[in-house]
Specification:
It contains 14 helices and 15 strands. By secondary structure, it is an alpha/beta fold. The strands form three sheets. A seven-stranded mixed β-sheet has the order 4-10-9-8-7-5-6, with helices on both faces. Bound molecules: pyridoxal-5'-phosphate.
Length: about 400
């Protein structure tokens, strides 16, 4: 194993001393990045196969995004929503077109956009559906990940996300993921929305059974319940479609997005919804100082251009299939299952190995950065700009690591 060189150690020690310990990062300190490659403070190069949890689908520091960001920095960065700016109108038009929905509300972090969707669904429930005051219920699924605020962890089933953070926000019901009957049975007259990830990324790259979203859609229509998808990680090409829900051709009422919306330059998130839903927000009902700022909108418009101009959606579909096909041939005694869509892949390690971290550590030593997710799966999610040759380079190393006993 490589020994940890001194600059790396110094930075890690400094952070350990003054930083909050709410993460357990791999022991690598990155100082430079370009495309699919990153370089650490001791001059080692790695391929980034996590892509900041899919926030850098366009690759690190994409030149077009860099240029758009610089140009906007020279014009105007923040106006607040007290005034209009010249970038936001084009941003909302673009997102509406991309989602097929009518109206768009910009925020910053993904979690804020999820909160926005929850607020919209509740108010729609009262004003449009006619649910009695303060009785609205939203159905979510087990093993979800939608963020970390108190309301959002109120519907998490991960004990660690909740432990010590109560009391929680009421009004959420949980059903198993992939089980449309359970959803149908959980709906009451107070149900206003159903919030779901088309693929559970943080949950371990869990792909629901074929036809699940289709059945969900028809159940929700029948009961006049909003169909809300969290595409923050799965959207924008990651899963081989612009939106992962397009795999089943469904039409959600609300789409939540973030992460790659700005290609890693700046936090930009948004909620797109049908007009009837979005119009429950009237002036003063909801807002954000930075949400919809011209810098974020300009970089997001360029980030969407890159996805379209460089054919990243098709690239993700083609390379993702090739990646999983090659891993499937490996027949490693330490791999239990390989799942995913597009360039989002989860490799579940066997029960007797039980922990994906040692593989990630070895991959790091081989020059491939990725992260264990939900303890027992290795997630591979490289920037979508990765070339065939770069993917081969990674696969050689991944194959070597997956064939070796991590305990030995
Ligand atoms: C990352 C993520 C979020 C939270 O986004 P932040 O920008 O970290 O607040 C919510 N939902 C999903 C599916 C995510 O992957």
């Amino acid at each position: 194993m490589t020994s940890t060189a001194s600059r790396t150690r110094d930075y890690i020690d400094l952070h350990d001393r003054y930083g909050a310990h709410n993460y357990k990062p791999l022991p690598v300190v990155i100082e430079k990045a370009e495309g699919v490659w990153v370089e650490d403070v001791d001059g080692r190069r790695y391929m980034d196969m996590l892509a900041a949890y899919s926030a850098v689908n366009q690759g690190h520091r994409h030149p077009k995004l860099l240029a758009a960001m610089r140009a906007q920095l020279d014009r105007c960065t923040l106006t607040s929503r007290a005034f209009h700016n010249d970038q936001l109108p084009r941003f909302v038009e673009r997102i509406a077109g991309l989602t097929g929905l009518d109206a768009v509300l910009p925020m910053n972090s993904g979690t804020e956009a999820v909160e926005t969707a929850v607020k919209a669904a509740r108010k729609w429930g009262y004003e449009v559906k006619g649910v009695a005051p303060d009785r609205a219920e939203i159905i979510c699924v087990e093993n979800n990940f939608h963020g970390r605020t108190i309301t959002v962890v109120s519907f998490s089933t991960d004990a660690q996300y909740r432990d010590g953070f109560g009391p929680f926000t009421p009004g959420f019901t949980l059903v198993p993921y992939g089980d449309a009957d359970a959803l149908a049975n959980a709906i009451t007259e107070n149900t206003v929305g159903f919030l779901v990830e088309p693929i559970q990324a943080e949950g371990g790259v869990i792909v629901p059974p074929d036809g699940y979203l289709k059945r969900v859609e028809s159940i929700l229509r029948e009961h006049n319940v909003l169909f809300m998808v969290d595409e923050i990680q799965t959207g924008l090409g990651r899963c081989g479609h612009m939106w992962a829900h397009q795999h089943e051709g469904v039409s959600p009422d609300v789409v939540v997005m973030g992460k790659a919306l700005s290609g890693g330059f700046y936090p930009v998130s948004a909620v797109a919804a049908r007009r009837e839903v979005m119009d429950v927000f009237r002036p003063g009902d909801h807002g954000s100082t930075f949400g919809g700022n011209p810098l974020g909108c300009a970089v997001a418009l360029a980030a969407l251009d890159v996805i379209e101009e460089e054919g990243l959606v098709e690239r993700s579909a083609r390379l993702g299939d090739a990646f999983r096909a090659r891993l499937a041939k490996l027949e490693s005694p330490f791999v239990k299952e390989i799942r995913g869509r597009g360039l989002l892949t989860g490799v579940e390690v066997t029960d007797d190995i039980g922990n994906a971290y040692p593989f990630c550590k070895r991959l790091m030593d081989e020059g491939v950065l990725c992260k264990d997710t939900h303890d027992t799966a290795i997630r591979f999610a490289p920037p979508l700009v990765i070339t065939d040759q770069e993917l081969d380079w990674a696969l050689e190393r991944i194959e070597r690591v997956l064939m070796a006993d991590p305990r030995g």
